[in-house]
Amino acid sequence: MKILFVSPGWPKGRLWGELGFKFPSLSLAALAAVTPDNFQIALCDENIERLDPGVAVDLVAITAMTPQAPRAYAIADLFRAKGIPVVMGGFHASVLPEEALEHVDSVVVGEGEAVWPRLLDDFQNGSMAPLYSAQRLVAMADIPTARRALFAGKRYLLTNTLQTTRGCPFECEFCSVTSFYGRNYRTRPVANVLAELTELRKKNSFAFFVDDNLVANRSYALELFTGMKGMGFKWLSHAPIDFGRDPELLRAAGESGCIGLFVGFESLNQETLAAMGKVTNRATSYLNDAKAFRDHGIGILGSFVLGSDGDSPDIFPRILAFCEEARLESAIFPILTPYPGTEVRRRLELEGRIVSNAWEDYDMGHVTFLPRGMTAGELQEGHDFLNRSFYSLGSMYRRIFKAHRSVQVFAPMNFGFRSAIGRCAKVCL
To answer: How far is it, in rounded angstroms, from Cα 101 to Cα 109?
Structure first.
């Protein structure tokens, strides 16, 4: 029997659909790793290749985030019309399984590794259930090494992606992580991670940890970084801004090969940060924190959520000025998006402020709710202004053309974002 894993394409004309650098779906490789050997497996990632609707398969498995959901449903409808059963998992289907079941035969809620073998056994016996949900969280020691052979021959920028932790100890209002993994922060045994890294190093010196917060458990992170020292990796991941106030851990990260981190600044307003639940952020120390990252050879991909209740139109030039003063190597400017399952969605629903459930617009680049401190049009214009201005040639020169080891990653990243933003603008004309 043959399974086709599918990663639906992002809508064209949207930033994430236009970016030239693509990364594979680690979740599909994790499912492939626990797929019994009697199944043949194949992958179609619509972000880099076209889906062949005539492909001969026995089962289709799709994962999707919210803006990919409409395309995922279209793919499911296409295969089911041919009598081929379809399974769906991921963030969106886990939160809205009833909606997904209008298009698929079965939904996997939450972490899939624990239930995937059982689902396949039921499928072979002709008794696949409409809903599979693990009774407990996956034991981190049991997470298998991803089956990266699934990515062979694909045009990915990097396939050395891996996960060391799951969950987050914090509960930011706008974030989907706690609704999917819970607030229980779990760690894989460092020995398992180092063994996986040893194999990955044979193919490539770059690695990307997809963890939502790699350093939430300080002792774990320190052990990991110490173990990685000397392996010769250049790696990236996610960390909170208060990481900049831990010199020992910063030094260990830099010495282990860290050259860049995704950092959620989210807001320059401390009251807004408190309302979000962003308890690790101290806006008054942002400049010093960012400098600490840079002093240890670590570049920053900053994130600023636009449209919070404390925001007014003057926030956009203020964010741009801060980014340039802090010399952030790169940044994204997501519009506040009320994803299903988040606290911000529950609040905005109660307040009657959600104006669209067109999931394709839940791409962090479109306004789907009524802002308080400005009009929806002003929020959209501010978002577009920041993207254009931050990725202008002048701003790029001021921020990234300096002697710093992270330039090797962030210079191409800036040009990639600049090109994607330009293509988005042309589609919108």
So the answer is: 12
Looking at the fold, whether 262 and 392 belong to one and the same domain comes out as yes
CA-based nearest residue to 264, from 246, 234, 237: 237
> Are 204 and 128 in the same domain?
no
Do residues 111 and 227 share a domain? no
Burial class (CB in 10 A: 0-12, 13-18, 19+), 166: buried
Residues 129 and 180 in one domain: no
Alpha helices for 85-210 (secondary structure H): 91-95, 97-100, 116-124, 177-181, 190-201
* pTM of the full structure: 0.94
Give the Cβ contact number of residue 348 at 10 Å.
18
Enter the tokens of residue 327: 């010399």
Are 113 and 202 found together in one domain? no
Residue 414 is part of a domain; what is its CATH number?
3.80.30.20
Longest dimension (CA), the chain: 62
- CA dihedral sign of residues 159, 163, 167, 173: negative
Same domain, 278 and 404: yes
**What does the pLDDT read at residue 403?**
61
Chain centre distance of CA 101? 24
Residue 93 shares a structural domain with residue 184: no
Residues 197, 413: Cα–Cα separation, whole Å: 24
For 356-401, write each residue's pLDDT tens digit: 999 999 999 999 999 999 999 999 999 999 999 999 999 999 898 7
